[in-house]
Amino acid sequence: MRANIRMLVPVLLAAACRQAPQNTHQAVPYEQISVPPADNGRWPQRFGWGRAATGEDIRAKDIDVRPDGKGLPPGSGNVAGGRGVYAQKCAACHGTDHTSGAYGRLFPHAVPDSSKGEKLIGNYWPYATTLYDYINRAMPFNQPGSLSREEVYSVTAYLLHMNGLWAEKAVLDQYNLPGVQMPARERFVPDNRSGGPEIK
Amino acid sequence: MNSMNEKKKISRRTLLGGAAATAAIAVQHAFGKWVQRPAVISQPADPTKVQGPPPGALGTRSPFEQLRKTTSETSSRTPLQSLYGAITPSDLHFERHHGGVPAIDPEKHELLIHGMVDKPMVFTLRDLKRFPSFSRICFLECSGNFRGNRPTLTPQDICGLTSQSEWTGVLLSTLLRETGLRPKASWFLAEGGDAAVMTRSIPLKKGLEDGLIAYAQNGEALRPQHGYPFRLFLPGWEGNTSVKWLRRLELSDQPFMTREETSKYTEGIKDGKIRQFSFDMDARSIITFPAYPQVVEKGWIEIRGLAWSGRGKIIQVEISTDAGKSWYTARLQEPVLDKAHTAFRYLWYWNGENTEIMSRVTDETGYLQPTMRQLVEARGSSMGGYHLNPITAWVIKKDGTVLFRPEERK
Question: With an 8 Å Cβ cutoff, are B122 and A50 in contact?
Answer without folding.
Answer: yes
